[in-house]
Backbone:
């Protein structure tokens, strides 16, 4: 079985077990991942954080773009998916943490991210969890950092605008379903 098919099956199994946690039946397409990462300077980043890494659709492309001395901290709550990530990417720049995005600050310590890549299914989370994670995002970025967020609806856009002075939106129409891509910055003059 090729890797793409195996990933789709793993993903579908994770969705069947916990649909609200996974929030999609397919991993993000390569095209949407590229559209998303094109909205930030990944090669210039020292620290990239990924939330909801799944089977690694974004992880592989982030590693391909990252500098040799940069680091990627990837959080994934599902232990089976976190194990897939650890086994797949033999790259010393990557640290996979099996934990909720709610606890990101504990794993970051005093560090802050240049780029945060987030594929969490915010619209299927219970409101308290959604609010806690979204509210934490500005505080985990460096002042010139950017949070890239992919969603399958524009519903969280107003919450993002409440949290970030600059929110740019793009649509990646060929993803299934079409994806809304947000680039959120702490300063209006960036990007
Ligand atoms: C829509 S999938 C995206 C997976 C992958 N990044 C992609 O784009 O194909 C959402 C992922 O977030 C994970 N997840 C859900 N809630 C989480 C949480 N609180 N903390 C960390 N990961 C979480 C799910 O297990 C799932 O792998």
Residues:
């Amino acid at each position: 079985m090729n890797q793409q098919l195996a990933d789709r099956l793993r993903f579908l199994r994770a969705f069947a077990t916990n649909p609200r946690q996974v929030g999609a039946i397919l991993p993000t397409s390569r095209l949407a991942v590229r559209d998303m990462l094109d909205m930030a300077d990944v090669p210039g980043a020292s620290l990239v954080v990924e939330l909801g890494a799944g089977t690694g659709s974004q992880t592989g492309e982030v590693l391909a773009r990252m500098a040799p001395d940069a680091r990627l901290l990837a959080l994934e709550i599902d232990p089976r998916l976190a194990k897939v990530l650890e086994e797949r990417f033999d790259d010393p720049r990557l640290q996979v943490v099996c934990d909720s995005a709610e606890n990101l600050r504990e794993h970051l310590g005093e560090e802050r991210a240049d780029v945060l890549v987030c594929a969490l299914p915010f619209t299927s989370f219970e409101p308290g969890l959604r609010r806690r994670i979204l509210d934490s995002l500005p505080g985990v970025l460096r002042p010139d950092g950017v949070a890239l967020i992919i969603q399958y609806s524009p519903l969280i856009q107003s919450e993002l605008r409440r949290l970030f002075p600059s929110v740019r939106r793009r649509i990646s129409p060929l993803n299934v379903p079409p994806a809304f891509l947000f680039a959120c910055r702490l300063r209006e003059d960036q990007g």
In short: The helical segments are 3-17, 19-22, 30-37, 57-65, 79-88, 104-108, 127-136, 157-163. The pocket of S-adenosylmethionine is lined by residues 21-24, 27-28, 51-54, 57-58, 75-78, 81, 100-102, 119-121 (CB under 6 Å). The two ends are 41 Å apart (CA to CA). The mean pLDDT is 95.
